[in-house]
Sequence to fold (331 residues):
Amino acid sequence: IVVKLPNPLSSKVHGYQTRLVGFSSQPRSLVDKSLDTNNRTILTSMKNSITLPVVLAHGMGDSCFNYGMMNITEFISSTLNGTYATCVPTGDDRTSDTLNGFVLNMDANVDVFAEKIQNDPALRNGFNAVGFSQGNNVIRGYIARYNNPPVDAFLSIDGVNAGTAALPDCAPSNNMIMGRICKSLMSTLSTVAYRRFVQKHLFQANYWRDPTKINSRDYKKNSQLARWGNEGDYTDSSLNENFAKTNKFVWILAEEDSMIWPREGEQWGEPNPANPFDSVIAMNETRWYVDDLFGLRKADESGKFFFESHSGDHLQFSREELENWIKKYLP
Fold:
C-alpha cells in the first residue's frame, strides 16, 4: 500500500467537528473494498504480519466513515506492513456515528464498540488500539469494562483521559475578564452535568470533571467517569483486573492544547485539589495513583507506561510523529 498524503499532517478542531487535515481530502485508493462494504477496514498481507491488529477510535464530531479516519486507518496499516487495521464506529453510517459521539453516553458507546470488537474474527486474539481525543474514552471504557479480547497496547493521542472541566479555549485562569467568564461557565455547566438525565444522554457530560465538585454527592453517584475511576459510591475490583490485562499504555499530550483543561489530564494529571485554578499536580500525586483506584499505579510500577508529547494544539501532530509513534510502540 502506498499512501500519498500532504505533509505535515495536522488537525484542527472547529467547534465540535474534528478535521484531520492531511488525511481528509482524498479517499483511500488502494483498499480492497470487498473486505468491508462500509469501506472502514484494511486487510492486507495478514498471513505475513506478526503485528497484532489495530483498532482505531475517532474523536468528537468525526466518524469512521469520513475520509480522514479512513486514510489514517490505511496509513497505520501501511506503516505496519499491511497489518489488519479497522476504525470501529458506534453508528452504522456517518450521521449516526457522528451523532453518537454526542447523544449516546460513554457506557452505551463502549457497549456498541465492544460488540463490534467481539464480532470481528480478526480481533479474537487481541489487538492494539489507537484513540484520538474523546475516542480514547471509548477505548479506555472498553479496557475498564470488557478487555476481552484484550487490548495489548493502547496509544492515547490527546485523550480526555482524566476528564475536562472547561469549554474549548475557555480554561479557568486568573485573567481578570476571561478567567471570570470561564469560571462562571464551568460553574453553570457543573450544576447540570451530574444530573442523572444528563449523564444518561450526553457523552461530553460523562467526562466533565469539575475539580470543585469531585466530592459532591451527584458526582460520586451519577458520573460515569467517577465510576470508571472507582471514585464513586462503590468500588469495582474488576476495573483493576481489566486494566492489568493491557501490557502497554502510551499517553501522548498536546503541549498547547486548548480543547482539554487541564491538558496534563492527557497524561493523568489533574488540577490541584487544594487550589485547582492555580496549579496542576502530576499523575503520581493524584488520588487515582496514590490509592491505585483502578490500576494506574500498578501499571506504571510494572513498566507499562510511556509518555510522549507534540507541539501545538489539540491533535496538531505531524504525519512523521504519528508514524514514529506507531513504529516505536506497535511493532
In short: Residues 10-163+235-329 form a domain with the Rossmann fold fold (CATH 3.40.50.1820).
